[in-house]
What does this fold into?
Amino acid sequence: MKTHTSLSCGWLASARRCVSPHFNARPNNEVSLLVIHNISLPAGCFGLPHIDALFQGCLDLEADDSFSELNGLQVSAHFLIRRDGEIVQYVSCDDRAWHAGVSQFQGRENCNDFAIGIELEGTDFVAYTDAQYQQLTELTLEIMAQYPMINSTRIVGHCDIAPIRKTDPGESFDWRRYRDAIC
It folds into this structure.
């Protein structure tokens, strides 16, 4: 399996860069957790520019009625993997993206402090594409090589670190397929 060009200063050279202002420095420079999410804007609609706009803080709230609830939201992830397999990067892995919100992993709160967030363009109930699994696998292996504190036991869904609030990546995500591919 080929891997992406190495991460340099936390940036994946092969990703399309779409820099977000919604990040800050990690308090301890620790990167030890990988969190898998899903997102679609509007919900269930794919291939639109709204995710980039949300993460860049310039979402047109008039573009869809559902966007009014996103007014003032400051959120980002490190990566997005679109349905066609395109990887978009918003924040350097060395910085803290704002993707996990109120969260806890193994008794530690504020997972953003030590986690990398990968969004998959999708929903809890629509199967992810082969291209997404392929890119997620390669990206994960690249991240694990660059940040050795992340191993297969330190890869979780958003639902695992914020179970009362979140359900993603959802029942449509094939954890067995993914874990078999990265081991």
Remarks:
- The chain has a mean pLDDT of 96.
- DSSP finds four helices and twelve strands in the chain.
- The longest strand covers residues 33-39.
- The radius of gyration is 15 Å.
